[in-house]
């Protein structure tokens, strides 16, 4: 029981991290020259911004609660995250990155809170669209000066993001399916974070 309470508290805390922890475009570009250093930095990167972490946990939790099979929306998220990161690495200007990231946190939080069901194709498409913008932001932040470093950054980012999805799926399956109020509370906190981010950008 204590483990369950601890895990639930971690999920809520992750969903409601302070806005000061946000990781956005241009805050950390370049400077990671080796494969391992780029891998390690990029692996940690999704955990350092409340917006990215909350969105990825929400994708996992929402998928576990409502999408069958549950892994397809998170897989689409990781795939489009990598595509967006490649665009960022290439210096491609992607309009509306910050508003779309904020909107993703808001929408995904609401989907968890109301436990909205939809066909996996639509769920994967929605997750993928949001993921592209998250990936573009990561790509701008983590752009490296060599192909080897870029490969390390992509691998680390994909793995870190996938682990957050798995954590969200575990929280969804183990706790939120049994305690629907927890899904409403965590989803609501995530949606509030997204709304605050949009207000901040206005």
Short descriptors:
202 residues; mainly alpha; 8 helices; 75% helix; 0% strand; disordered N terminus; signal
Describe this structure in words.
The protein is mostly helical and 202 residues long. Helices cover 75% and strands 0% of the residues. It contains 8 helices and no strands. Helix 3 (50-66) crosses helix 7 (147-176) and helix 4 (72-89) runs antiparallel to helix 7 (147-176). The N and C termini lie far apart (43 Å). Residues 1-31 have low confidence and may be disordered. Residues 1-23 form the signal peptide. It comes from Comamonas sediminis. It holds the Pfam family HupE_UreJ.
Describe, in short, the structure shown:
This protein has 202 residues and is an all-alpha fold.
For the biggest sheet, the summary is: none
Which radius of gyration do the C-alpha atoms yield? 16 Å
Termini, distance in Å? 43 Å
Query: What would the principal axes of the Cα set say about the shape?
Result: globular
| Overall strand count | 0
Number of helices: 8
* Low-pLDDT residue spans: 1-31
The computed structural class is: mainly alpha
Q: Compute the average pLDDT.
A: 85
SSE order: HHHHHHHH
Provide the β-strand percentage band.
under 5%
- Proportion of helical residues: over 70%
Protein name: HupE/UreJ family protein
Transmembrane segments: 47-68, 75-93, 99-114, 121-140, 146-169, 181-199
Signal peptide: 1-23
Pfam families: HupE_UreJ
List the helices and strands and how they pair.
Layout: H1 2-15, H2 35-44, H3 50-66, H4 72-89, H5 97-114, H6 120-142, H7 147-176, H8 180-201
Helix pairs in contact: 1-8, 2-7, 3-4, 3-5, 3-7, 3-8, 4-6, 4-7, 5-6, 5-8
Organism: Comamonas sediminis
Signal peptide: 1-23
Transmembrane segments: 47-68, 75-93, 99-114, 121-140, 146-169, 181-199
């Amino acid at each position: 029981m204590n483990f369950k309470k601890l895990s639930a508290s971690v999920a809520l805390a992750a969903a409601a991290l302070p806005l000061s922890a946000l990781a956005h475009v241009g805050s950390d570009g370049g400077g990671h020259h080796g494969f391992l250093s780029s891998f390690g930095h990029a692996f940690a990167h999704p955990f350092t911004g409340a917006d990215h972490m909350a969105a990825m946990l929400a994708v996992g939790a929402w998928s576990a609660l409502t999408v069958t099979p549950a892994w397809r929306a998170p897989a689409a998220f990781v795939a489009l995250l990598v595509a967006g990161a490649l665009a960022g690495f290439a210096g491609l200007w992607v309009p509306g990155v910050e508003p779309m990231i904020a909107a993703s946190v808001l929408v995904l939080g609401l989907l968890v809170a109301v436990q909205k069901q939809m066909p996996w194709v639509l769920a994967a498409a929605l997750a993928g669209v949001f993921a592209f913008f998250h990936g573009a932001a990561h790509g701008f932040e983590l752009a490296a000066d060599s192909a080897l470093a870029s490969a390390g950054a992509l691998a680390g980012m994909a793995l870190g993001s996938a682990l957050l999805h798995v954590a969200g799926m575990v929280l969804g399956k183990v706790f939120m399916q049994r305690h629907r109020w927890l899904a409403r509370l965590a989803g609501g906190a995530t949606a509030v974070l997204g709304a605050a981010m949009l207000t901040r950008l206005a």
